[in-house]
Structure formats: C-alpha cells, structure tokens
Task: inverse folding
C-alpha cells in the first residue's frame, strides 16, 4: 500500500520507486535510487518553495499597492514641504533618524482618515516621538520630547 502523503525522499518512497525495477539493470536501479534519494527531495523542496512564494504573493497582493501609494504620497509631500520635516523643520537625510516618513496628522488610531490630505512628510524621529498624539499637543511638547529643552511646557488651563 503506497503512502499517500509525499512518499518521495523517504525509505518507503525509495522502495516504492524501486519496485517496478525488479530485474532491471544495475545502472537503471542506480539511476532510480539517485532520483528517489536525491532528486525527488529537491523537487519536493522546490515545490514547497513555490507554494510559499505563491502564498507570500497572495498575502501581499493587497499591501503592495498601498506601499506604492505611500511612496507616491511621500514624494509629493516632500516636494510640497521643500524636503523638510513638517514638525522640526530638519532637512531629510536618508539612512538616518532624519529620513523622510509619511505621518498621519490625525493618527489612524484616533480615527484619522488614510488620505494624503491627512498626511505630512515628517522625519522618522518626529514620527516616532509623535506616535498617535494630538498634533497641537505634539507641536507643544516636541522640543521637550526630543530632549531639546529640559523643562516641559506649562500645562494649559482647562
Ligand atoms: Zn522632524
């Protein structure tokens, strides 16, 4: 009874592959052994890799267009802002904490819309400091959060 689940590359698989070769030449048996022991597992691995690649493509089919849109927004926002951070005014510098990122002015976590109108280009440092903070509050506290001043701004009266 042959095993149903991928017998290739197993002893059972090897024996099953050899069964039709009873009475065959030594060369044919050797070729069948090499195929069963060496080539079949490689084919099985290639198949698994193809399946994983297909699964990855399927998983990212939805996100890749969003990434492409973000790249476009960032390029447009940078051009509109003179290549400077909307919060600290630094000039963007790739590969550093001053690299350009897309920041949602009203954070998505606060119900802000995922539209370009709700986005600015901000350096990674400001983006990370701001997180989902209210933008007016962030502007007020940014120098303190960034360690540029020792004293936090006074609390506003309610
Ligand atoms: Zn900044």
Result:
């Amino acid at each position: 009874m042959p095993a149903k689940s991928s017998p290739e590359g197993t002893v059972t698989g090897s024996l099953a592959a050899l069964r039709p070769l009873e009475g065959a030449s030594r060369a044919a048996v050797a070729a069948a052994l090499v195929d069963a022991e060496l080539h079949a597992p490689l084919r099985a691995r290639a198949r698994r890799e193809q399946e994983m690649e297909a699964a990855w493509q399927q998983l990212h089919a939805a996100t890749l267009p969003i990434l492409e849109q973000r790249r476009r927004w960032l390029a447009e926002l940078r051009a509109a802002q003179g290549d400077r951070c909307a919060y600290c005014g630094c000039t963007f510098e790739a590969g550093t904490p001053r690299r350009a990122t897309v920041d949602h002015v009203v954070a998505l976590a606060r119900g802000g819309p995922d539209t370009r109108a709700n986005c600015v280009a901000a350096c990674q440092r400001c983006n990370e400091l701001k997180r989902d903070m209210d933008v007016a509050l962030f502007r007020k506290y940014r120098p303190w959060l960034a360690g540029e001043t020792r004293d936090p701004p006074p609390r506003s009266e309610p």
